Amino acid sequence: MPVGPFGIDPLIWAPLRLVIAVGLALFLVLNGALLQIYLERKIQAIIQDRLGPYHVGPFGLLQTFADALKLISKEDVRAQATDGWFFVAAPALVFCPMLASWVVLPFAQDIVGANLNVGLLYLTTLGSMTVLGIVIAGWASNNKYALVGGLRSAGQLISYEIPQILALVSVALVVGSLSMIDITRSQAGPLVNVLILPFSFVIYFIAALAETNRTPFDLPEAESELVAGWLTEYSGMRWGTMLALSEYGNVTVVCAIVTTLWFGGWQGPGVEAIPLLGVLWFTLKVYAFIVVMMWIRATLPRLRIDQLMSFCWKGLIPMALLNIVVVAVLALAFPTTKVPIAVASWLLLVVFVAGIPFVQRRRLRTLRARARAATAPAVRAAS
Amino acid sequence: MPDYSLSYVYVFAFFVVGAIFVTVLLTLARLVAPRKATKEKLRTYESGEEPIGQAWGRYPTHFYVFALLFVVFDVEVIFLFPWAVLFRALGVTGLIEVIVFIAILVVGLYYAWKKDALNWY
Fold this sequence. Notes:
heterodimer, A: mainly alpha, 13 helices, B: mainly alpha, Methane Monooxygenase Hydroxylase, Chain G, domain 1, 3 helices, 69% helix
């Protein structure tokens, strides 16, 4: 009789594993949302020299829990003019792809829902499905703020998806596999991918901020101009499912992808001896990136929509394409060593970061010249 | 290998559980939450003003331009993924083909750039 892992019959193990995987993913999404909302409020408070939540429970830890209970018991208003079916379906359409992304995220050596051999492609596919839910939510609300928010969101998400996926291709080039497990395994030891491909990491991280509607790219929810963007008509638990669960879930998924692809996933000291230690390393790395995202939110102002779009199409996409070509040529020219790729990638990163101020200054100069040319005749006529 | 198709059972199960979870959550909220609908409450929110017309009207064509560009580039990426995996087996021929492929798209991007299609008004 064949014996599966932990000495359990494989026939029982297969469905049992499925139940464990789904349950664990749901548990982590719910707790992740609770924890991240608390963390976000507390970190923002510390950065802005406030106290943040402190009243409910020790250090305000139960604040989010109380908020969740409040959301469930809140009146669920659906305005008369909304499109019934789509309005109701949108929360599920945003939530399901996010939950399904957890299938391929490896927490530790054997703790993974399913080792898909197209893992990366699968993740990008689910990433694009979120857009669908957001556009449907914006359209079904039949509210002008929601519609503009939804359309902006569509424009932003589909644009930033391209540099995001192009950055993933360069990792697949170096590793030679799309399976999340193989990618993690290839980074055993201290030589993680971020040292070899820092440029694609930076591109991915910027695009990921936009994909998850985080500051400085949170235009779909720009409260100073669009009330609450595509969420304007939602209230109660529908709002809770969309924003609290799905948005924070997506942030976690994106940070988990960054961790797996560029920072060695569950690899860390002591993993060989105790495989369960991988879960700890993975979680720590993921939360480090989540905290960085919150730090960015407290630091940077929001971009304008035209700046956002031109930064993607004129900055990130050409650079991401260049990155792929450079990595591919160097990987083929030097099949035994990764040093040339690393050198080229660091160089590209330096050029990119140092180039932004130059481009900005040139653009500012042309804009000033144009403004001067436009006002000059009027000024002359007045004097 | 049965394990391979089993993976997609997992994917399917995650979708089903997600849908069930949202349904249960919203049903729970429906059972617990009060429902006192008034005419004012059910009106579309427009910053306190009387809403004028519907939101389902015409919207700017920029969205279509960006959507078209997105489709082009997304299809490109679908082609790049298999190449990236089999990159070493395909060798120089594959590399040159992909560079030509990317170059054609870059020309398209340049055209769109010069045509002012990448500016958002």
